[in-house]
Amino acid sequence: MPESLRPAHASAAPPTRLPHRLVLHIEPDLLDARTTRHQLHTCLKSWPMALPEDRIADALLCAAELLANAVVHTAKPAVLTATWTGSALQLAVHDQSHQLPLRRPQFGSAATSGQGLNLVQHLANRWGVIPPTGPTGSGKTIWCEIGPAAPPEPSQTDSPGRPSRQINPRHS
């Protein structure tokens, strides 16, 4: 039998296809957002990712914050997309609101709400907002990227307001 037609050894791993992608549609209900987080966790555990457990936990926390913001502030359906690129996990939540998010000042450990985007900024390597395009755009997308290593501590120049690490990539 020619070499090219011989079956691979049983120990050979199948080729990994990248990127891995998960798309989940969320109803404007906190219980549905919770179910979505559980589905995301199950999916991330099944993907062959080079992310340590603590970074997977960070990604789940970022996803929870982005989902909660979409559900609480828009009261409309949203879409969560998770993509493993081979080097980082990209999370994006698209909602139907044209209102861009504001990152509030950090209130300290006693604050019980309003700190979601500060948390995302602290945990994600990069994050940003893709605003609606044109007057009839279908809403905005807030995204973040989680890599294997935690991001450096935020600089003193990071201030409340719009995202300080705002980048507007086009996810494929």
Automatic annotation (TrEMBL):
One of its GO terms (molecular function) is protein serine/threonine kinase activity. Residues 155-172 have a biased composition (Polar residues). Residues 29-126 form the Histidine kinase/HSP90-like ATPase domain. CDD domains: HATPase_RsbW-like. Residues 138-172 are annotated as: Disordered. It comes from the Bacteria. The keyword Transferase applies. Keywords: Kinase, Serine/threonine-protein kinase, Transferase. This is Histidine kinase/HSP90-like ATPase domain-containing protein. It comes from Kitasatospora viridis.
